[in-house]
Model the fold of this input.
Amino acid sequence: MIINRDSNLNKLGLTFVETDQGFTTKEAITEAGRCLNCSKPLCRTGCPIDNDIPAFIQALAKGNMGEAREIIAERSNLPAVCGRVCPHEKQCEGHCVLTKKQQGIKIGKLERFIADFDAEMNLLKPKVFTKSKGRVAVIGSGPAGLTVAGDLAKQGFTVVVYEAENEPGGVLLYGIPQFRLPKEVVRQETERIAQLGVKFITNCLVGADVTIDRLFEEGFDAIFIGSGTALPKDLNLPGRDLMGIIQATYILRTITLYNQGKIDRKEVPICPGDEVLIIGGGNVSMDAARTLLRLGAGKVSVTFRKTVNELTALQSEYEDAVAEGVKFHWQCTPVSFVGTEGRLTGLEVETPTGRTVLPAHKVLLAIGSRPAARIISTTKGIDVNEAGYVITKKVPYGMTSRKGVFAGGDVVHQPATVVLAMKEAKKVAKGMAAYVEAKKLLEVC
Ligand code: FAD
Done:
């Protein structure tokens, strides 16, 4: 049973409903009409996956939604996601010539508009691709796995995705909160990829339920590892064993499950009125802070070692967090966790003016993550670096030290962004296609 708790207003007036409502059709066409259609489109240079931005904007400006959607589909399998969570201000929009005059085209919102319009009107008819090129297994269904799956299915490969969670989507589903990226949007995008003929096997943890060796025995020609960075980093300071210190990604996941009605409120370890401190300055920290305000936490603050200009979170996320009431402590380096009778009561921090204790009922850790070793430890011959990231080659692009096994996304390049995971995955998909083609040729010789 899915219980929809999204629209429950809390005392601050915040809900889990998406905060940015997107463009209406009229607004989208008007915005697209402002595009100068530059002869050297810098917006496209700024897009890591080389989306043909001017072409889809021109199609949209003429009201040709289907054409706009087809143009986007040539480069991206996840436009409704990218339209919402990409750092546009640093990428396409940041490069738009009109941005210098503070009038940059809202490219992200236009991409989102077209993808959402398509989801409603079903503009993009699924094409049937003959599956004759070979068989590929994809481990993990985050942006990297979904990109490899979509790109190879379009080229005529039979693709099976193995996902440990009970639904595809990776961080898009269990990390980024509903009010920034509605779960339905992620489901619509994965459904589109399934319509290309990709098969999803969920609740399957590779390394436990099946191994890479077993997948090769089943006849896969190549395997892609896109398992992300599932292990959150810890902060082993004095007092770490006090009760009340929790990983932020764990909280985000449990709140998603609670909002879906899959777990009870008491399984989310934040009580109404709790004063919460979050350590870290990335998107995970901002997402956790804003989520906790929606859940009814009393006071939510973020502590960061550096200054506001050095935050790694999206600028828009930081601004939204401030507007919603999240407080920030800059240049605070955690020194120890403080508590009584086994329970946390605060965090001692070093500041430019000396040491102080910030009171808190709970402290969330949002200081990064690294790859889990489950796949590597159950498979021979895949080299990783000291931190556990998979090492890959340039030729064929993305292949690991084990023949036929490829990797991409955060498990190779460290936690980055959705679009950078997609960018790498697109290159790895090409490497895999070339590898399988060569393998098949050698088989017939
Ligand atoms: P993931 O998305 O981590 O996907 C890996 C998948 O592999 C998961 O589904 C996992 O369950 C599965 N898996 C792992 N091990 C196994 C196994 N052994 N067997 C089977 N399946 C397995 N980026 C942005 O661009 N914009 C943002 O606003 C943004 N916000 C973020 C907010 C949060 C809270 C977090 C955590 C990240 C955010 N990011 C954001 C970063 C972005 O989400 C990641 O860079 C991106 O998801 C990485 O994609 P991936 O496919 O490599 O890995």
Observations:
- The radius of gyration is 23 Å.
